[in-house]
Amino acid sequence: MQKIIDETTVQVGDKIFRRYIKKSDIDARITEIATEIDRDLAGENPLFVIILNGAFIFAADLYRAITIPSEITTTRLKSYSGTETTGAVKTIMPLQESVVDRTVVIIEDIVDSGLTIQKIIHQIKDLGAKDVRTAILLFKPDSCQIENPPIDYCAFKIPSKFIVGYGLDYDEAGRSFPDIYALADED
Ligand code: IMP
Ligand code: MG
User: Known catalytic residue: 112?
Assistant: First the structure.
């Protein structure tokens, strides 16, 4: 269940969320990140890997802002239930493409504990990629449980707030809001 309450407030399930990052600010950061990726990976024909489901909207905008020759594919992992990380990361849909000797850029919505991004980087390196980079919409440094989180391109560093919108969900609802919202009672 999701509902727009007013210009800056939405309800998702049983919780109230307030607007936290506007779509225009997301767009501006995506333009900057795309410029960095174009510059860093020109001539590499990178393979972008979208981590479904949460990253699909960020990936659609980021990928269209990148101009160098490249390819894109998807994989699906799951670690969250409700607003809590479960600690265990399950692979629901494995990667189908070969990554042998390729430069891979993982596109992920959010790095919270860091366990999901760590697991996928290990998997892709084990499959033979020559270089694995990450493009992350949101990074919560205070929640991160791993040392030196492997983040190459990051749109926003945020406090440890639970987020919905722009692809991110609360129990599968709230993904379609264009802006990013944070849980209201975590101010
Ligand atoms: P991590 O493994 O704890 O870093 O969690 C990463 C995954 O949990 C992300 O791919 C998201 O799908 C989900 N997640 C983490 N924080 C949030 C949040 O604030 N809102 C919605 N999903 C989240
Ligand atoms: Mg995700």
Answer: yes
- Residues 183 and 17 sit within 8 Å (Cβ to Cβ): yes
DSSP lists the bridge partners of residue 72 as 48
> Which segments of 44-114 does DSSP mark as H helices, in order?
56-65
3-state secondary structure of 38: helix
pLDDT for position 92: 83
User: CB neighbours (10 Å) of residue 101?
Assistant: 9
Query: In the structure, which protein residues have their CB atom closer than 6 angstroms to any atom of ligand 1?
Result: 54, 79-80, 85, 108-116, 162-163, 168-169
Question: Distance (Å, rounded) from C-alpha 137 to C-alpha 170?
Answer: 17
The active-site residue, picked from 14, 25, 112, 126, is 112
- What is the percent of the chain with per-residue pLDDT over 70, rounded to a whole number? 95
Torsion angle (degrees, nearest 10) of CA 14, 92, 176, 19: 60
pTM for this prediction: 0.93
